[in-house]
Every structure is written in structure tokens, then in C-alpha cells.
Recover the amino acids of this structure.
């Protein structure tokens, strides 16, 4: 017989494992979705997974997240072309981040399924932005618009975000990038960053939008400097800023209130 404590641990473990596996499957789906969107391949007409190089249709056992990549030793079984390590990494990261997000909600006393659903949506959209911008150097506008609408409505109707805070956030986030866009005639940043700024406002409210922008700039500048010193990039290299914006936004969602509170305390506010 199991005692109650062990029983709860067991059930918890099974639930987390289930969430992790769902995350792996989601990551695998996102990988193939992004590739199809980029190569303009219809999603429904050819739903089977295939090799991005030779378009060989994968058998079911060649399409298991992470494990198949390891078993195939990172090569397509048909054309032998290497499969980049970023594919299993996306799957693994999605699995782990899904566990993190669900864990953040389960431990709350005032558990809200709407807020958990919202955060799973946000995570999915942030992973797409991060990976797509890194791989293809563009922020997908359809993802950002969908995110803005989902975030705005769930925040407004279920989570007591004030409409003023969200609108001000959208104005700050969007305006900040729009200004740079106008000044540089679109050379420093793209329209995707402007739209992403608007979405941050709808998701985070104005205070955490400022924080997310700050985190994104610190990360971007530090990493840029390290890569310059290591001569991995030069001053003309195009920076996929959506990568840093996604990380900044993710940190602000979970630690924003803590960081803003700590800072307000520090300046004696
Ligand atoms: Zn192949």
C-alpha cells in the first residue's frame, strides 16, 4: 500500500511526464509547421511528416521526437543529409518549458485554467517567434496578430487586467519600435518588431512591457558583444531581435512582478 504522500508524488510525476510528452509532440509539430510555412507547403494536403531535404515521407518510428533523431544519428534515412540539432532541441525545449509553465500554475492557490491556457498559448507563440526569427530572420505577422488578440481578450475578460494598462503597454511597445523604424527608415529594425512591441503591451501591461524591452536589449547587447569579440559576427550582421524579445517577454511573464517590485523598493517608491 502507498501512503498518501507517495501517492500524490506518483500522480504528480505521471501528470508532469504526460505534460512533457505533450510538449515534445507540440515541439515536433511546430518544427514541421514552421518549415512548411517557410517553404510555402500546404499543411492539410500533405499531412505526413517528411525530410526537409528530399521530402521522403517519414515512417512513424522515424518521427518520434528526439529519440528518432538520436536513433538515425542525425541523418535522413533516405538521402543521408544531416538533420540539424536545432530540430530535436526545439522538441526538448518545448517539453521542458511546458512542464515549467504548467508547474507555475499548479502551485498557485488561485488556480485559473484560463490563465494556464493563456500561458500555454503564449509559450507556443514565443517558441515560434524565437525559432522562426533565428532560422529565417523574420517575425511572422500572423503569429503576432493572433497573439495580440488572444492575449488582449483573455487578459481583459478573465484576469482583471485594466484596459488602460494594456493600451498604454501597446503604445509603449509599438511606439518604441515605430520610432526607431521611422528614424532609421527601416534599417535597424523591421515591421515585425513594431508588431511584436504591440503584442507585448497586450500581454504584459505597460510596466512589464518596459521590463521585457530592457531584458531583451541587455541580452541582445551582451550576446552581440561576445560574438563580436569572438569574431563570429561583424557589425553588418543582421540581428534576429525577435529571439531576444521572446526571451524578455517570457521572463517578464513569470518574474516581472517580482523584478518590478524589487526595483520599486530599491528606488524607494
Ligand atoms: Zn532526406
Amino acid at each position: 500500500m502507498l501512503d498518501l504522500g507517495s501517492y500524490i508524488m506518483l500522480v504528480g510525476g505521471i501528470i508532469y511526464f504526460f505534460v512533457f510528452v505533450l510538449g515534445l509532440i507540440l515541439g515536433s509539430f511546430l518544427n514541421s509547421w514552421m518549415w512548411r510555412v517557410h517553404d510555402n507547403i500546404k499543411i492539410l494536403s500533405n499531412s505526413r511528416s517528411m525530410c526537409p531535404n528530399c521530402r521522403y515521407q517519414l515512417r512513424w518510428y522515424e518521427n518520434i521526437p528526439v529519440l528518432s533523431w538520436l536513433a538515425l544519428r542525425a541523418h535522413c534515412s533516405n538521402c543521408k543529409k544531416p538533420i540539424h540539432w536545432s530540430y530535436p532541441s526545439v522538441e526538448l525545449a518545448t517539453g521542458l518549458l511546458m512542464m515549467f509553465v504548467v508547474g507555475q500554475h499548479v502551485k498557485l492557490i488561485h488556480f485559473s485554467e484560463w490563465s494556464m491556457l493563456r500561458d500555454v498559448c503564449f509559450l507556443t507563440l514565443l517558441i515560434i517567434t524565437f525559432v522562426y526569427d533565428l532560422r529565417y530572420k523574420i517575425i511572422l505577422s500572423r503569429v503576432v496578430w493572433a497573439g495580440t488578440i488572444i492575449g488582449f481578450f483573455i487578459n481583459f475578460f478573465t484576469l482583471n487586467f485594466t484596459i488602460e494598462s494594456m493600451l498604454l503597454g501597446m503604445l509603449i511597445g509599438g511606439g518604441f519600435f515605430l520610432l526607431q523604424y521611422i528614424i532609421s527608415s527601416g534599417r535597424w529594425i523591421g515591421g515585425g518588431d513594431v508588431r511584436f512591441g504591440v503584442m507585448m503591451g497586450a500581454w504584459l501591461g505597460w510596466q512589464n512591457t518596459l521590463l521585457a524591452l530592457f531584458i531583451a536589449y541587455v541580452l541582445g547587447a551582451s550576446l552581440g558583444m561576445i560574438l563580436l569579440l569572438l569574431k563570429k559576427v561583424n557589425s553588418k550582421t543582421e540581428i534576429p531581435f525577435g529571439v531576444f524579445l521572446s526571451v524578455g517577454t517570457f521572463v517578464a511573464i513569470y518574474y516581472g512582478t517580482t523584478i518590478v517590485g524589487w526595483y520599486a523598493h530599491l528606488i524607494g517608491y
Notes: The radius of gyration is 21 Å.
